[in-house]
Write a structure and sequence with these properties.
The structure holds two protein chains of two kinds.
Chain A: H1 6-36, H2 43-60, H3 65-91, H4 96-118, E1 131-134, E2 137-140, H5 141-163, H6 165-175, H7 179-182, H8 187-209, H9 219-234, H10 239-259, H11 262-279
Antiparallel strand pairs in A: 1-2
Helix pairs in contact in A: 1-5, 1-8, 1-9, 1-10, 2-3, 2-4, 2-8, 2-9, 3-8, 5-6, 5-8, 6-8, 9-10, 9-11, 10-11
Chain B: H1 5-19, H2 23-46, H3 55-73, H4 77-101, H5 107-126, H6 128-131, H7 156-178, H8 181-191, H9 193-198, H10 203-229, H11 234-237, H12 239-253, H13 260-279, H14 286-301, H15 305-310, H16 334-340
The chains are: A mainly alpha, B mainly alpha.
Amino acid sequence: MFGIDIYLLEALINGLLLGGVLALLALGLNLIFGVIDVVWICYVELIMLGMYGMYYMYVSFHMPFVFAAVICIAGVGGLGMLLHILVIAPLLGSAPINQLLATGGVLFFLQSFATVAFGIDFRNLGIRLPVLEVSGMFLSYARLLACGTALAGMVLVYLFLARTYTGTAIRAIAQDRQIMPLMGVDTRRIYLITSFVGGALAGLAACLLVLQYDIHPFIGLTFGPITFLICVLGGLGNMFGGFVAAFIFAEIISVSGLYLDLEWGYVFAFVFFIVVMFIRPRGLMARRS
Amino acid sequence: MRRVLPWVIGAALVAVPFVYHEPYPLHIMVIVLIWSTMYTSWSVMGRFGLVSLGHGGFMGIGAYVVALLWNYLQLTPWIGIPLAMLATAVIALLVAYPCFRFRIIGHYFALVTLALSAIVQQVIIATRDYSGGSLGYTPNRYHDGNSIYALQFTDKQTWYLIALGAWAVALLIRYRVDRSMLRYALEAIAEDEDAAAAAGVHVTAEKLKITLLSAAMTAFGGALYCQYQMFISPDTVTGFAVSLQMVFAAVVGGIYVLLGPTVGAIITIVLAEALRIFFGTAAVGWDNLIYGVLLVLFIIFLPQGLVGSLLPDRARSGKAEPPSTSPALQGPSAQSVAATDG
């Protein structure tokens, strides 16, 4: 028709929308890594808890969605701070791999906590958002909303980091962890704020994902690996790199899913990841060191 | 006494199935031994700071290659298992060589290998027409299910002896590695790659050796698991969760000690089974809940693992130096705390 297949175009646009959400997932993790130098392997489990929170607030307590979302964002932010105080702070000085493994222990804990507390049933909010039809293409309204909100959230975080005093201190710590305490910045406070922001981003992701996916204790295994790989692909700690990598991943998954099964999309994305790691071991947009 | 003790314990372990026939405890012992074999295989490389999250993938390749060769080509596991180990080693080589060549270490190595185990899992699910996909896969039964040719046995006693043998071989390999030049080279590399290279250590080659060894051993364990359980699925033999399970059981037991991973396997499996017996279905999830808490506490308070922390320095595997000099998994050192705690 226009020289491009309408299904391909649809897949490309859906990939863009998926990319927005993945970029949001990667942003929180990258922020934590960039500032505190720790990988939260259990990051996606925080999102899972946020999704359960949304479910209970919306379905059991009949709260309005937006109100529940605000509580969810603040609550998961609080969980992020708690995680930092209980697990990360005692391990700040030990080998990076220890920190990775400790947050992995938290992953097991949260997953089984959800199994014990909420059961293994699949749940959903029961909200059905309409599907938009744009010149023969079908686009999910939920995805559009998710992508839009994710982008807005990222802009907010950017403004926070670029325009506020605390944000400047956070960026400064990410650049040099040794000098900033000498300049009078309280690193402990900055770490706590960063953990809160990282957690709050997980909460925001939870509010958006809950519109599209069923909630179950093992949902972390669906999103976890892909989120880490996006962060590494973009260069751990590099927020812009993570943003670009999220869209590349989403397009690979979406377009391969059009021609083959969805699983092959993941396979291609992972193979692409490994190949890129060999060409650019520090990520697509490596930080200059 | 110290020389005789291992032989006495070994003889006692071999004697168990001849005097004891209860199927359920024997089943638990077989499972513990098979997983111990794999945890030990992981620790062979893991103790040098090479934290791989790809071992779930290696186990999956081992299990699926043997089962697929048997079902489609009627190839006996006696040939299938070496082929599976070879295939695993080739894949490990394809991923690990560039990793080591381009100095992908630490977090990055863990996450690249994580991608590998995710790929293996997704490929198995995607090829569901041949591999059964998420529903799992069963090797065909050979006649009455008792055959040396097909490596299929219905009685637990035989499996106990096979698993015991595999576990003993894994321990032996680890013991030999701990007393080889390879160990000194790898400890130097773990300490400082540049310095090791300057001292004449071929960094890439040494790391590759240990990785291929560890991967092939894990594939062997996976094949054994498949032959014993006669059922495999992408969730039980591959993927992120299995990889993490291997790392964590080994860490809980202690990776610097020969029997650490075995103790890790005993703790985790017995804990899960005990909860299941005493609390029934109400206990679903509790084992991992306790396990997760233990893991965090262990890494914060006992980074040497359970066995490692109980033993005096001298008795830990390897005589030359206390393991606290290995870079990974050690407690917070005074210097680095001072640097970051400002």
